[in-house]
Task: structure prediction
Amino acid sequence: MLKSMSVRPKRPLRLLHTSDVHLESDSFGVGEKGRKMTLAMRQNFAEVIAIANREQVDLTLIVGDLFDSSRVSEEALAFAMDAIAAAAMPVVMIPGNHDAHDERSIYARMAPEQLPGNLHLILEPEGKRIDFPELSARIWGRALVEHSPEYRPLYGIPPASPGVWNIAMAHGLFTEMDEGTRSSPITAADIAATNYDYVALGHVHVFSDVSQGSTRAFYCGTPGPMYSSEESGWVAHVTCEPDAPVKVARLAVPR
Result:
């Protein structure tokens, strides 16, 4: 069932949703093979930004694990920030379990002048809401500090607001019920309780739909085919329209 038309904004909203880029992963190894994989993953991320520009989306969401660890090189950091700066729209990003905002946080060592002007980086563990009045959009996310069963990615999310598109960003593992053993659990009840228009998820490397009721919730998968034989990675293209269900399309990211 659609949410009440009277509380929806009158303008549409288009999003590009990516996560789990894992720039400069140790799993690529050393030598020529590792170097080629590192360059390939960088090209994948550059292509994600190019897709966002071609599709003329209103916002790009990076839902955790842009980097594979806190040990990435200054070169990789500079590449990522330059790629984000090339986006023709605001980019909102949260840390994931690989690039967690803990005592070794890669983001803590970055000077403000290193961040591109279009990047909105959410580093608050308790969560932060960012308003884009010109887009009739409100984005909420939390910084992951410790990947543990106690961390609940959607804990503390504010109620949905009328008259705006309510979008959440959460990095964690979807489970039907919280058994208390999974780290960073996101339950079906957690998603349904938001009553948001869209919940952008990260952590799972395959494109998957875990929507609950009228709240659409998706994992976009990784933009690079790191752990599969598929020829392409994926991103999610999300379209919110006042008089229609939220539409989510899987777009290929060429190798």
Notes: The chain is about 15% helix and 30% strand. The longest strand covers residues 232-240. The helical segments are 31-55, 74-85, 188-194. The chain has one domain: 9-241.
